[in-house]
Design goal:
The chain is built from three helices and no strands. It is mainly alpha-helical. It has a domain at 40-87. It is extended and about 65 Å long. It starts with 25 loop residues before the first helix and ends in a 15-residue tail after the last helix. The relative contact order is 0.06.
Length: 102
């Protein structure tokens, strides 16, 4: 099997080019070895979602309006906002959407 990379031609399979080896600090290795937190679990709501929601209220300086942090992709929040707008146009106020450009 030929292992030479011919840069001028199309490759039949992808080439993985990452920096490494990279030494990780021990706390990072410990954190990565923990089971993943599932967004549908009650512990996610208590440990992550509730503190984030309260912090967002402070960041946006609001006490009378509802702040909603939606776990999921950006599309999840967009679809929820559009659905709420469609279902009750009078009940929806302003919607904040952030956009990232690479």
């Amino acid at each position: 099997m030929d292992t030479t990379i011919r840069w001028g031609t199309t490759q039949s399979q992808p080439i993985l080019m990452i920096p490494g080896p990279t030494e990780l600090p021990f706390p990072v290795v410990q954190a990565m070895s923990q089971p993943a937190t599932i967004q549908y679990d009650l512990s996610f709501d208590v440990k992550i979602l509730e503190p984030v929601t309260l912090a967002l209220r402070d960041i946006f300086q609001t006490t009378r309006s509802e702040v909603i942090a939606m776990p999921g992709s950006g599309r999840t929040a967009l679809e929820a906002a559009l659905s709420a707008r469609r279902d009750s146009p009078a009940a929806v106020g302003r919607v904040l959407a952030a956009r990232y450009r690479a």
